Every structure is written in structure tokens, then in C-alpha cells.
Amino acid sequence: MNKTVGRKVSKVKRWFNLLLQSKTGTVGLVIVIFIVFVAIFAPILAPYDPNVVNPTEVHKPPAWMEGGSNKHILGTDNVGRDILSRVIYGSQISLLVGITSVILAGIIGIVIGLLAGFYGGIFDHLLMRLVDSFLAVPNILFALVIISVFGSGVTTLIVVLGITNWVVYARMVRGESLSLKERDFVRAAKSMGVKNRNIIIRHLFPNVISSFIVISTLSVATTIILEASLSFLGLGIQPPQVSWGTILSDGRDYIATSWWLATFPGIAITITVLGIIFLGDWLRDILDPRLNK
Q1: How far apart are CA 235 and CA 232, in angstroms?
Q2: Closest CA to 250 of 97, 238, 272, 227
Q3: Is the predicted pLDDT of residue 165 greater than 70, yes or no?
Q4: Which residues pair with 69 in a beta bridge?
Q5: Within 10 A of 51 (CB to CB), how many other CB atoms are there?
Q6: Are the C-beta atoms of 77 and 204 separated by less than 8 Å?
Q7: Half-sphere exposure of 71 (CA within 13 A, CB side)
Q8: Which of 13, 171, 192, 288 has the fewest CB atoms found within 10 Å of its own CB?
Q9: Percent share of the chain, pLDDT over 90
Q10: How many CA atoms lie within 13 A of 177 on its CB side?
């Protein structure tokens, strides 16, 4: 028991040391923690309701510009809604869609990848042709078709983004499973009569999960951008719900006169995506088996 605890403590120390050594990893972790904190406590942090219209405060510039006010630090939009409050609340939907859709895609991809890699043969061939058919169609085009048929909304968007991104995980997991099933510990389990289901769950799955974590972390960033793109086109999140994409869409007609409407949600998306990418690079370092010494 003491040895097990000691290994866990040693691993945590190694992760912490790697985090301190990686400036980008530290920055990424801080950004992600901050964005998650803002999303969780949005009702407390936001100075106003994001959907409250105030006709007397239309197109107010940020506080540091002429005509600005400390009442609206980042200014207001074309109907007087507070931009800071909308950006804060927008983090909730953007993170919710980004994380949950990646989890859904990961579940589908891992299951299909493990089954295809372990069993091989005609089963593997059929599943990989299914993967190829999904790869033949651009994700955003596939998403546009499904949303146009079933309508938009948070749940629809999560499902659409989940079923358009699972192929990445399926191919990765299949490749690793093909290699793992030839290892001695898997052969030994088979020779001892261990059921295939138990081999997949106890031997293959734990060995592919680290790669999945790295790829899924980076995929969250891609999914946030895709959600913002669909919402920008009016096919994603619909009012009165707020996401960074919808704020961008509302401000695109006023870029020449009220640049802050689209700039601040764009900055929020950029910072969040960069933070997730930096964190993904750090996770790749700590989960790389070649570094587990």
C-alpha cells in the first residue's frame, strides 16, 4: 500500500515539475482554470443580465474610450446589452458544447476503435470504410446538413459535433489496438482463457486512454471554434441563449462603427483556444510513455 501511495506521490511530483518547466503549460493551465471559473460563476461575475435591453445605452464604447462609462467596461451592443456580461455568459455555452461533444465523440470513437482493432477482419474493414465515408465529407458541411434538417439548439449542436468528430478517435484507438493485441500480456491473457470483453476493458482501454486525453484536449479547442462558426452563421446557438459565436454574429454588421461588439468575443475565443492548446501540449509531455521514467 505504501509503495502504491509513493508511486502516486512521485507521479504527481513529476507532473508538477513538468508543469513548472513548461511555461506554455503553466499559462495554458491558468487560462483554462480561469475560463472554467468564469463559466461556473457567471451569474455572480456578470454585472448585468446578458439579455437585458437598454435603448438609452446603445453602442456605448468601452470605458477607456471617449463616451465610455465604468457602468459598461467593455461597452454595449446595438440594443444596449452589456458586452462584458454577454462575453462572461457566453463562456458557459461555448465550454459546454465543446467539452460534452468531445466526450460524446470520444465514447463513440473509442468503442469503435477498440472493436475494430481487436477483432480485425471483415468487422475492421466495414468499420474503417464507415470512418472513410465520414472523412470524405467536411465536418462543417456535415453539421450544416444535419442542423438544417433537425433544427438548431444546444442539444442538437452537441450531438452533431459529437457524431462528426468521432472518426479521429476511432482511427487513433484502432491503430494502437492493432499494436497492443500483439503484445505478450494480451497473448498471455488469451492463452489463459480471459474473455475478449475483459481483455478489451482491462488491457487495451487503459493503454489507449492517455492518447485519447491528449487528442480530446486539443479537439475541445477545435470544437469551440466550430461551434462559434455555426452560431456565427445562425445555425448554432439561438437567442436568448448566449455564446461567443452569437455575439460575433450580432456585431459583424457594426465592425466599422462599433468594433468592440465583435472584438471582445473574438479575443475570448482566441485566448481560450490558445490556453487549451498549451494545456494539450503539456498533457502530451506528461502522458508520453517515453518520459515515464
Answers
A1: 7
A2: 238
A3: yes
A4: 72
A5: 15
A6: no
A7: 11
A8: 192
A9: 24
A10: 28
C-alpha cell at 211: 492518447
**Contact assessment for residue 114 and residue 177, using Cβ atoms and an 8 Å cutoff:** yes
CB-CB contact of 35 with 267 (8 Å): no
Any alpha helices (H) in 22-81, and if so which ranges?
23-40, 42-45
Q: Are 287 and 208 in contact (CB under 8 A)?
A: no
Task: State which fold the 2-291 domain adopts.
Answer: MetI-like fold (1.10.3720)
Domain spans of the chain?
2-291
C-alpha 238/C-alpha 173 separation (Å) is 35
> Do you find a cis peptide bond into 240, omega within 30 degrees of 0?
yes
Degrees, nearest 5: CA angle 278-284-287 = 140
Report the chain's C-alpha Rg in angstroms: 23
Tell the burial category of 15 from Cβ atoms under 10 Å away from its Cβ (0-12, 13-18, 19+).
Answer: middle
- Is the Cβ–Cβ distance between 204 and 186 less than 8 Å? yes
Phi-psi region of 53 (alpha: psi -120 to 50; beta: other; left: phi over 0): beta
Asked if 60 and 78 touch (Cβ cutoff 8 Å), the reply is no
Q: Where are the alpha helices (DSSP H) in 151-201?
A: 154-180, 184-191, 196-199
pLDDT score, position 83? 94
Number of H-type helices and E-type strands within the chain? 12, 0
Residue 114 has pLDDT above 60, yes or no: yes
Q: What is the pLDDT of residue 5?
A: 46
Whether residue 275 contacts residue 35, with contact meaning beta carbons closer than 8 Å, is answered with yes
Residue range 125-132: mean pLDDT, rounded: 82
